[in-house]
Amino acid sequence: xxxxxxxxxxxxxxxxxxxxxxxxxxxxxxxxxxxxxxxxxxxxxxxxxxxxxxxxxxxxxxxxxxxxxxxxxxxxxxxxxxxxxxxxxxxxxxxxxxxxxxxxxxxxxxxxxxxxxxxxxxxxxxxxxxxxxxxxxxxxxxxxxxxxxxxxxxxxxxxxxxxxxxxxxxxxxxxxxxxxxxxxxxxxxxxxxxxxxxxxxxxxxxxx
Length: 208
Prior knowledge:
The protein is an alpha/beta fold. The chain has one domain: Rossmann fold. The protein contains 6 helices and 7 strands, in the order E-H-E-E-E-H-E-H-E-E-H-H-H. It has a 7-stranded mixed sheet, with helices on both faces. The model is unreliable at 193-208 (pLDDT under 50).
C-alpha cells in the first residue's frame, strides 16, 4: 500500500510500515529525525489529495485540543478553531483508510468520541499515555502485548502525573509514537485486504 504518515518528524510509524514492504512516507513541517528520502518537509494538506494514498495515519498537534490543557483554552478560541479544522481536514481527506490520533479533549465534543483509546502498556511499553484513535475504513487496533497492571507506570510520579516536566522540548518528546504501537499499526492495518465499504468511507461524517 501507499501509506502517508501525517505530522510525523520521528519516522517511527513510517519505518514500521516500510519494514513490511509498503511505500510509506512521512510528512511534517520539521525535518525527519531519521534522515531519508521518504520524508516530505511541507504542509501535509498539500499532499493528502495526491499520489493515490491507500492509508493515512495522522498525528495533528494537540496543544489546543487536549483536555490536559483545557485551562488554557479560554481566550484562545481562534487557535482551537484552527486546530479543530486541521484535525477534520485530515479525517475528511480523500483517502480510503484513515486514523487520526489525539488525546481526549475538544474533538470528542466538536466532532465525536474516538473509536478507541489505547495505552502504551497494551503494546509492550511500561508507560501510561491514553490516546484516542478516530478511525475510518480501519478496524480498532488490537493490543499486541499487554503488560501486567501496575500501581504506577514508569513515566508517572507518585501522584500519577507524567514525569516529563515543563520545557521547550516537552511537546517534541511527548509527540513520538511508541514503537510497539507503530508495529501494531503496520502489522494489523498494513495486512488489511478488505476494501472499505461505502459505510466505512462515510462513517461519522461525509468527506468533503
